[in-house]
Amino acid sequence: MSPLALAAGDKAAIPEATWRAVAERLRFAAEIGDIGGDAGLAEELAGQAPACQVLSRQLVRLADDVDLKGIIRLADELEQDG
Q: pTM here?
């Protein structure tokens, strides 16, 4: 199952540049093993649009599991669908 489960309408409400920036930050933090950076980004996203809140919850779950590969897959999917 894909780690990213956002409704098309939710994601469409957020500018593509935002998704790409989030993906870049996720990938960078995961590649250097910075789970704190991913958790910080999740906290930032939690206070934004509903689609960002869904993404935040998914990111928190991946960070809690220290699933760096899952976080990179999430970044990949954001870039593909962004």
A: 0.72
